[in-house]
Design brief:
This protein has 525 residues and is α+β, with helices and mostly antiparallel strands. The chain has 8 helices and 12 strands. It is elongated and about 200 Å long.
């Protein structure tokens, strides 16, 4: 960190100095260029004023003195003076027919092509006038001066300025860099390092202790703030430890209470299941009692007829009409016994399968249409003495690989719930169970009744455990909760409910045809 911070400060200082030097160099260059142009103009003006008279008088010595004087300027490299042909010209060896009168150059100036500027300065004279820059229409051109200016002096000054600035930047960087290094190390880095060590120690151990405040500057305020944070953190940690202890104890109590509640719920579920099974046994026993009673009556009738014909045979006076009457009676009794025995056997078979299914969770293949009939047959004792009609509709050949016992319990609870909560004792109505296949892989079973509707505020609660509106009448509130748990957790399906005034109350169970397909949702209302 120390190296990075010093490097950043050093880099910032260098950038500032370089920008300052660039600005200073630019200003100096502009100033030197302006001075150079001004000196060029001054040289041109002086030569144009002074050379005219000397050239008119053909005073070569004066011309030489004037040229030598101007060559003393650092900006002039060479000067050549020409006179034109007119009356003054005898020879013409210069450009455009002009004669070279005088030429001279500065011996100490190296002329470089990129640093020179040539200027042709016309020299004119008008009789009766003082030498000056005159109108070309009235003046006689005596000749011209060809001046070569050089920027060598300007470039040397700029080069010297660059070297000077580079030296200044290096020296200032070295001096200020060392100064900043020591100042930052003492004033910034050392306190920051102490704070960093303190924070690291605080992260490992909350009992670090307060840092010593060595000044009233910003770092002293930071140290004081750190001490406040440390004290508050220690206090918070102590409170958190106490809260964790209390929370752990409360959690253990809640876990124990939850386990007790689950155990009680399982006991209630088992009790409800066996109560339903006991009710089923009682109902089926009552239902079987009729065909068995009729069969017993038929058997007694046949026995009496048999004893009567035996007496007649023993007496030796059996008539044909009496024998025919006996045979007719025997046939009628046999038919009566057979039909009622078959009915009893059907009831026993249905009861046996449903009872086995409800007490076990064995998975097997079923025909849904046949199974719905068996379940409703076993439930008939619950509603046969009421004015409520229970029916079902299901397409044939819907094969399911599922847990029929769980499905029977779901249907039993839905029908029982409709009978208990949907209809009063003297009410008339209908409970309709409808099944259909969805997308080939899912089976929907709907249990609808036209009894009392479920209030809207109770719809979200109907599947909650122990929720009931008939607690005073012995309701446990577990019937629909058992339905929800079986459908969503064991059959991997969904169960929904809808109810409104003037409409049927509908419970729709959606389960996979082959058990093991997972459902994406659970309860819906």
């Amino acid at each position: 960190m120390r190296f990075k911070l010093n490097f950043l400060l050093f880099l910032l200082l260098t950038i500032v100095l370089v920008l300052s030097s660039v600005f200073s160099y630019s200003s100096l260059r502009d100033q030197l260029n302006a001075d150079y142009q001004a000196r060029k103009q001054e040289v041109s003006n002086r030569l144009q004023m002074s050379l005219v008279l000397a050239l008119w008088n053909r005073d070569h010595k004066t011309i030489a003195d004037l040229v030598s004087a101007e060559l003393a300027s650092p900006d002039v490299a060479s000067i050549k003076v020409y006179e034109t042909g007119y009356e003054l010209s005898v020879e013409s060896d210069g450009p455009s027919g002009a004669k070279l009168v005088w030429a001279d150059r500065a011996s100490n100036k190296e002329v470089v092509g990129e640093q020179i500027e040539e200027l042709r300065l016309p020299l004119r004279w008008r009789a009766g006038k003082a030498p000056s820059i005159q109108d070309e229409s009235e003046a006689v051109e005596l000749g011209y001066a060809q001046i070569v200016f050089t920027r060598q002096h300007v470039e040397k000054l700029l080069s010297a300025q660059i070297r000077h600035r580079v030296f200044e930047i290096v020296m200032l960087n070295v001096f200020l860099g060392l100064a900043l290094f020591f100042v930052m190390s003492y004033v910034v880095i050392a306190p920051l390092a102490a704070l960093s060590r303190a924070f690291k120690a605080l992260a490992l151990n909350s009992q670090v202790g307060a840092l010593e405040v060595k000044g009233d500057d910003e770092f002293g305020e930071v140290v004081e703030a750190f001490n406040q944070i440390e004290r508050r953190l220690v206090s918070d940690i102590e409170r958190r430890i106490e809260a964790e202890k209390s929370l752990r104890q409360t959690n253990e109590e809640l876990t124990h209470a939850l386990e007790s509640l689950k155990s009680a719920q399982e006991s209630l579920v088992e009790s409800d299941k066996f109560a339903a099974l006991g009710s089923l046994v009682a109902g089926v026993a009552h239902e079987i009692n009729t065909p068995v009673g009729v069969a017993v009556t038929g058997a007694s009738f046949i026995l009496e007829e048999t004893k009567r014909i035996e007496k007649l045979l023993a007496a030796g006076g059996v008539k044909k009409s009496e024998m025919l009457q006996f045979i007719a009676a025997i046939s009628e009794g046999a038919v009566l016994i057979q039909s009622n025995a078959e009915r009893a056997a059907h009831l026993v078979k249905s009861f046996k399968q449903v009872a086995v299914d409800e007490t076990s969770e064995q998975r097997r293949d079923i025909d849904l249409n046949v199974y719905l009939g068996e379940v409703l047959t076993s439930l008939r004792p619950k509603y046969k003495n009421t004015r409520i009609k229970v029916g079902y509709s299901c397409p044939e050949n819907i094969r399911m690989d599922t847990y029929p016992g769980l499905l029977a319990q779901v249907l039993t609870n839905l029908v029982t719930n409709a009978l208990v909560h949907g209809f009063s004792e003297l009410a008339e109505g209908e409970i309709a169970i409808r099944a259909w296949v969805e997308n080939g892989d899912w089976v929907n079973i709907e249990c609808a009744n036209d009894g009392k509707h479920i209030p809207a505020e109770n719809l979200p609660k109907v599947f909650e455990p122990f929720f009931t509106t008939r607690r005073s009448s012995g309701g446990t509130g577990l019937g629909l909760n058992i339905v929800f748990n079986i459908v969503t957790k064991k059959l991997a399906g969904t169960v929904t409910v809808s109810s409104a005034v003037g409409e049927k109350t509908r419970f729709t169970v959606r389960i996979p045809r082959i058990s093991g397909h997972n459902a994406s949702d659970g309860r819906e209302t």
